[in-house]
């Protein structure tokens, strides 16, 4: 398997009924902070899907250092704790590595 | 919920034991074709994770037209059928919409 070390994360989060607005407020603050501060983070966006009360963070990092830099920020720790209050159980986190090197890989 | 119509897809695929090399060959061909041909597709990359024999496509599209353009290409249909032969059950597909508008949204 040809590996180039690019890392991805997909975090699927279920929230308690009726907490969408508060959760989104905190989650979007986190998204903004990451995009403003983390050059090694190539993608950090929040999505919602067809399943009610469920959100998905799609994330991509240039390398392991960028992953660790993200996780060590104060805002990630603080906003992560704040989001946890609205969660219905633990998030499902897929920690991923990119397969191979492709056209369009920036 | 403030919506800007940006679409994401996370497709998690389990493959039959011992088929990694063949599956990756076809899947990487698809990734290259998409990145070469689809301007409205902002992200189309293949990942593998901690779960054996499991792959994840992370995808992002500028709009619904880009989603439909992708699905109507000959190569998506042909390579999709070819990949299906190596799959262990149906893929789990999360069809997603981006929440709100963020710093760093290109």
Automatic annotation (TrEMBL), chains A, B:
The keyword Nucleotide-binding does not apply. InterPro entries: ABM_dom, AI-2_Isomerase_LsrG, Dimeric_a/b-barrel. It comes from the Bacteria. This is Antibiotic biosynthesis monooxygenase. PANTHER family: ABM DOMAIN-CONTAINING PROTEIN, QUINOL MONOOXYGENASE YGIN-RELATED. Keywords: Monooxygenase, Oxidoreductase. Residues 7-95 form the ABM domain. Pfam families: ABM (PF03992). One of its GO terms (molecular function) is monooxygenase activity. Gene3D superfamilies: 3.30.70.100.
């Amino acid at each position: 398997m040809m590996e180039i070390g690019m890392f991805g994360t997909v975090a699927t989060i279920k929230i308690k009924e009726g907490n969408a607005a508060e959760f989104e407020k905190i989650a979007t603050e986190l998204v903004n902070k990451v995009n403003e501060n983390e050059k090694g983070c190539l993608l950090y966006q929040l999505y919602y899907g067809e399943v009610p009360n469920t959100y998905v963070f799609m994330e991509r990092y240039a390398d392991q250092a960028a992953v660790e830099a993200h996780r060590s920020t104060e805002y990630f720790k603080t906003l992560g704790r704040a989001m946890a209050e609205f969660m219905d159980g633990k998030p499902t986190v897929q920690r991923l590595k990119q397969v191979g090197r492709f056209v369009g890989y920036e």
